[in-house]
Amino acid sequence: MDIEDSITQLEEVFEGQPWFGSSILKSLKDIPVEFWDKKPEYVSHSITELVYHMMDWRVFVIEKLKDNESFGIELNSEKDWRRDVLVQTEVQKETILNELIKTQELICELLTTKPDSWMYENSLGNSYKNDYMIRGMIQHDIYHLGQINSIYSQLN
Questions:
Q1: Which end of the chain is more exposed for a tag (fewer CB within 10 A), N or C?
Q2: Contact at 8 Å (CB) between 68 and 75?
Q3: What are phi and psi of 77, to 5 degrees?
Q4: Could you tell me which of 134, 128, 115, 125 has the C-alpha nearest to residue 57?
Q5: What is the pTM assigned to this prediction?
Q6: In Å, what is the CA distance from 127 to each residue of 36, 119, 130?
Q7: pLDDT digits (tens, 9 = 90+) for 45-91
């Protein structure tokens, strides 16, 4: 996977017409705000928590794209899963969606500054390559989008 392919996949999953269904942005825009903080029985995280989680891992990728070797997220920490986050109004929903859009734009912008060879270099401070990180972020987004849509389906 080269830089151009990565950006194409990121854009398709985020706001395009992916093969699997609705994009991240379309799904989130279509879910009414009154469902964002609710959890069905036996579900660990709300839509709000999942969106912040996705956004925080996108920030991880942004920091690696900015050559920040020391930035990291410890699994199951406050940086991984924020506590006490709520989206209760349309304004709050719009704010978090705009933050998510900014991560998308910045990732794509930073990727365009990298040569294709960057994809096959080790990710700074990690034992894996950058292409693994980018593919992983795309997979992570799709996985959590599935959870988000499932939560909404159960609550609706």
A1: C
A2: no
A3: -95, 180
A4: 134
A5: 0.95
A6: 36, 13, 10
A7: 999 999 999 999 999 999 999 999 889 888 888 888 998 999 999 99
